[in-house]
Structures are given as structure tokens and as C-alpha cells.
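Re: the pair you flagged

First of the two:
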Amino acid sequence: QVQLVESGGGLVQAGGSLRLSCAASGRTFSSYDMGWFRQAPGKEREFVAAISWSGGSTYYADSVKGRFTISRDNAKNTVYLQMNNLKVEDTAVYYCAASTVEGGEYDYWGQGTQVTVSS
């Protein structure tokens, strides 16, 4: 069983920055691929960013490329999402997710953290 707890959300003005954290339980965090997703009101959940178990590969949605950076610290069982130059359209609940089976879907999810960007 894996538990994921996000933190770092809040209210920020457009152009500002936030850093989200996701703390994971479990002794094998370093073997999990991790991802960030978001869901805005009235919209479906969408992919934001992902990072491989080693941190050697990262992937981003086109909408956040160049503004967001995903990283991880396996010694701290934590994955981060640095969000810069935030836009109003980035407003959403942000979720982290873990893929515990190689090549598999994300099978564990956090409870989410709200990010609100004001104009």
C-alpha cells in the first residue's frame, strides 16, 4: 500500500510561483514512476508532468512545458512540481500519482491540493 500526501497549494497571482510536494510512504518509492495531474472545475483530469523512477526522464504537457519542473528526492520519498509563471488557466486541484508496476498505469493517488491563480 502506498500513501501519497500533497502539499504546497494555495492562492497566487498570475506570474507567480508555487512548489508542490508529494510525500510518499513505502520503502520502494525509488522504484516508482511518479506523475502530477490536475483537474479544473467542470473539466476532466489531465496530465501535467511525469518523472521516471530514477529521475532520469521527465515528461510534460505542452501547456506547462517551460514553466513547470518535476523533480524527485528518493532519499526523502518526495516528488516536487515547481510551477513558475503561473496563469489563471493553471487553476485546478493538483494530484500526484504513483505507478508501482513497471510500465503500468498510475495505481495510487493523493487527495489533491488546490492551486488558485488570480488575475
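Second of the two:
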Amino acid sequence: QVQVVESGGGWVQPGGSLSLSCAASTSIGSIYRMGWFRQVPGSQRELVATITDQGSTVYRESVKGRFTISRTNANNTAYLQMNSLKSEDTAVYYCNVYNVGQDWSNYWGQGTQVTVSS
């Protein structure tokens, strides 16, 4: 089984910073990719950033230069540093874990709210 637990998030004014953490626990095997998605009510969940076990990253265009994803393979933890936050970054952020021990499955955390407003 795979358990995914997020922490961080909260409220910040525009221009501020927040950080998110995601810890994945598993006995299945190594994790290929970890990442963050976000969702606002009435909209589809969208990719924010992902990182592979080799450190390859993908970012949503609108967060490039403002968000940084990183990962510690030893303890299966991923981080998302969010700077220069904008009101449009407000959403529930979900940690995603993909392909654990070659199972090609997706696993999700419970989500954490990020609110950017004055």
C-alpha cells in the first residue's frame, strides 16, 4: 500500500510565500514520480509541478519562475516552494505519487488548501 500525507498550505497575501510538503510511505518499491496538482471548485484538477526520481521536473507555465519542486528520494518526500503568490494560485493542492514499484498507478493525498488574498 501507499500512503500520501501533505502538510503546509494556509493563507497568505499576494506576493507572499508558502511551502508544501508531501510524505509518501510504501513497502511496494521505489517511487518514480511525485508531484503537485491543484483544483478549484467547478474546475478540473490541473498539474502544477512534478519531479522524477532522477530529478527531472515539469512545471505549469503559469508557475514557472515562482514555484520550485524538490524531492528527497531517501525518505520519499517532495516539497513545493511557492513564491510571489497570486490570487489565481488559490486552490486545493494535492500531492500525487505515480508508479510505485512499477505498478503504474496514481496515489493521492487528501489535499491542502492554499488561499492567496488580501
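The two ends are 41 Å apart (CA to CA).

-B.
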